[in-house]
Amino acid sequence: MVAEKIISQIEAGLAPWQRPWNPGDSASVLPVNPVTGKRYRGINSLWLLASGYEDSRWMTYKQAQALGAQVRKGEKGTQIQYWKMTEDVPKADVNGEPVLDKDGRPEKTTVRLDRPRVFLASVFNAEQVEGLPERIFTQAAVQPAWEVLDRAEALIRASGARLVHKEQDTAFYRESDDTIYLPNLSQFETAGKYYATALHELGHWTGHESRLARDLNQPHGSEGYAREELRAEIASMMLGHELGVGHDPGQHAAYAGAWVEVLRRDSFEIFRAAADAEKIYSHVMTFDIKLQKQLDEDRAMDAIHLNEPTAEKSAVTVHFYKTARSQSASEQKEADELIAKAAVKGDWSQASQMGKKHLGFAFPSDWNGSTEVRGCVKESDSKVRSQLNPGETAEFYGLYLNRRDGSQRWVADFESAPEAFRLGTRLNRIYHIQQEVQAATRAVAPSVAEKLPVQKEKVLQM
Fold first, then answer.
1. I need a labelling partner for 20 at 20 to 30 A (CA). Which of 232, 283, 392, 427 fits?
2. d(C-alpha 368, C-alpha 361), whole Å
């Protein structure tokens, strides 16, 4: 039944991954359980998307009641399935006797089932339920456009995937040299369409034998090629939702006929494709999780620095001076290049470690490349004020890095302004090296915060 409905939707151009949407559209939110806060995965997600409801919230009858709501009389539920792959069984010793814990209770161990068990459940869409609060869009749907794109850009960098941009009409991943080939950014109508395309190709990139090891050695137009495109397109739809870049399926409409043929011959292929798409999604999003963790750590450090006594700040400054004095000009240049190249790769953990080693501090992952020197006064042993009153004389000078969201990060204090400016100049040099390396590796390197040139987009055949 699932495959038949999906096939009919593919033929009509209405399968979940065939529908275009922009950030903020109702279609940009994947099915989610409002009680658990978790989204539905794999074939369940596709099946619920195929149901035709606009609201993304799905729940069981009892869950609706727990929210103080009620399924309307006569409404029919949509069946989903869960697979149980493992089971907890009593643990036994070499003699077959049960193993007991310190309290005398039988210990259990988890074993993988030879025959996985399937469990069915009926869920109802929020449009079938009365008494629910109005839907609130997720953060991804309301974030400023530049921030969403910046997140997608950071994820692609963090993946370590090699991207080559050229004046061409096609985008593709080539396994032989493990490289993604894309048209230049100026060939895309919007930044969202560029990142949607890049994420699709990143989906293919995960199939390399060193990653998820899918069979990518299939000739163009073959059944195997269509199967891989199906996985990448479902995955790019999911990634587009998570990162808020939108979804543009028009580039892959030509595969509809091949997808129908594949599913008619093997109805279980849609289940396998959905499962593989989840694996692609999880693999790619691990890079985003690492980046968000680093950003959280940066924010935590900011909170500490804002309340640090001046004496503790001075200790960092002294460390910096000791490090700088022990390095020659060529050694400083080499250290700056290492920090910049680590940042280009999105490896903020390594970049931070190098920053601490060569500079005495780590710079935030969302630094925009500019610095500011501020005159400061010490109000108490635990409070420093960096905003001077009219006519007030600075006791020392602090160097701050400007973040992309407009906030700042303190990095060091100095006895004089020229000393602070010298460090600022060195940090600016690191940022410029980073930009040069990025331009060399990606052919074009405009900031994602800038509006891309708007012109008619060329059709991409992938």
1. 283
2. 17
